Amino acid sequence: MRVPVGVSNRHIHLTQAHADILFGRDYRFKKLKDLRQPGQYACEETLTLQGPKGAIQNVRVLGPVRSYSQVEVSKTDCFVLGVNAPVRDSGDLEGTPGLRLVGPKGSVELDAGVILPFRHIHLHPEDAAELGVQDKDLVAVKTSGERSVILENVLCRVHPQYSLEFHIDTDEANAAGLRNGDLVQVIHVDAFHELRTFTAQRVLVLNCGSSSVKYKLYQMPGEVILQQGNLERSESVSLAEVFSAIFAAVEGPIDGVAHRIVHGADLFQASVLITPEVLEQISSVSHLAPLHNPVNLEGVREAMSRLPEIPHVAVFDTAFHQTMPPSSYLYAIPYELYEKHRIRKYGFHGSSHRYVVERAEQLLDIPNDKLRVISCHIGNGVSVTAVRNGQSYDTSMGLTPLAGVTMGTRSGNIDPGIIPHVEQLEGMSTGEVLDMLNNKSGLLGISGVTNDVRELLELAHQGHERAQLALDLFVTKLHKYIGLSLARLNGADAIIFTAGIGENSAELRERICQGLEYAGIFLDPQQNWEGHGERLISSRYSPVKVLVIPTNEELVMARDAYQLTV
């Protein structure tokens, strides 16, 4: 079994009585972000730890309140503080040292409660049954990478409310070369031999569109592409015929299938195994993406009819954005429309934003809980996402992929009063106007000739005024949303360019970044124009880093499917 890593930074659990002393009477914690374990969250509040030898400031409080106060630190922290904390399971505080907690309203002297957390795995009972372990059993995990090691004496914590996750403190994580989101393998060991190792799987990734079906076959967990293709479909070629060609081409067994689903509304916050109930839920929100979801579902049903015995996984474009706060996702329309019909911003390109943000965290070596990123997915479809603490905080697309930045054939945001106005002037129906906004607007609509940025740049260099105007408008709208993201994040550590235009057009990247110097954004012209692939294109002196990161949505899908099915 492969288990995601959660590096446990120093943190504090408090009783309500201690919270009242430290922060004020009847104090209620302010949530900063949810943690992977249901009901647990990082708070905005921090405290200072004072030990016999030294102090550590800005130590995060985790919620909710508990029946005991406890401080979890690393061995390095113990040296700084001057305490000798034992390795203990959470709540096992007998014989542990204490220290002073200092908050904005007062201080608390703990007689005990400082521990080095026992490395442990949170397991749902189903996960425990699959591994054949019980609560409080000990197992081992194997890491991969340059510092591949086997960590023994890993405590199993089993509870119906737990989500699968391996917790390790910062000292051990650094020594083992582990970061948040890495995967470790649960194994059994004896004194001499590894007895059980990971399960290899072949995962087929399917992306069904109205005009084509893309596929990739991955060997997991090595993430090796075994086969791939892009098959065109038309009115004269049925989806069944396309799938017959795909399955005839794919060699060898298939252990799991990952399906791209564009719209999951607020029903899905992560990828899920597909069941009849999941299919019904996806169908219930398909009116929100009528050009995409029905086609996606058609592909799911066709694949499941051909491979009924293996697990199928749905990966949602909208899932990554379900961490947005109401101030980001609500529209200023009567609230009952949200309550009755869930009319709100959902956002898209989630798998792309998720992949490039995770890569940025690794490239910049900044923990995601400290990283502020503006991710610019710029292709024929365009979305700009403000990411805080590794989570989507705001994004440009809305209820549908039509909203936000000007795109290849989509208008992006317009005055909604334009729709009835055009209906009246042109004698068009609402459906016809929406078709115009989706398929005949954007770069195509302004230029009048093409939505291909390469052709528009060539035409603009030849003096084509409307091609130049289309590009000017495109850059202006991107400026607008990057500026909005800077405001929402209170600055940024990095800007990422990804997708077809973002990865390949040095000229547009340069034009987009021009005028953003006030925010600390300075390009390195040589890296921007002459470099290739994944790289840093900002000046070495630029406070805000600028990266080009080729997206890999299919790999995200394969990883999710593997994690859910192994």
Report the mean per-residue pLDDT as an integer.
89
CATH architectural designation of the largest domain: 2-Layer Sandwich
What is the molecular shape? Answer: globular
Low-pLDDT windows of residues: 191-197
CATH topology of the largest domain: Nucleotidyltransferase, domain 5
| CATH H-tier superfamily of the largest domain | ATPase, nucleotide binding domain
Number of domains: 3
Give me the secondary-structure category.
Answer: alpha/beta
Tally of strands: 27
The largest pleated sheet is described as: 9 strands, mixed
% residues in beta strands:
25-35%
Terminal-residue CA separation: 6 Å
Estimated helix fraction: 25-40%
Helix tally equals 19
Task: Walk me through this protein's architecture.
β23 (382-388) and β24 form a beta hairpin. α10 crosses α19, α14 packs across α15 and α15 (465-489) crosses α17 (506-513). The protein is 32% helix and 26% strand. It is built from 19 helices and 27 strands. With 566 residues, it is an alpha/beta fold. One of its GO terms (cellular component) is cytoplasm. Belongs to the acetokinase family. Pathway: Metabolic intermediate biosynthesis; acetyl-CoA biosynthesis; acetyl-CoA from acetate: step 1/2. The active site is at 317 (proton donor/acceptor).
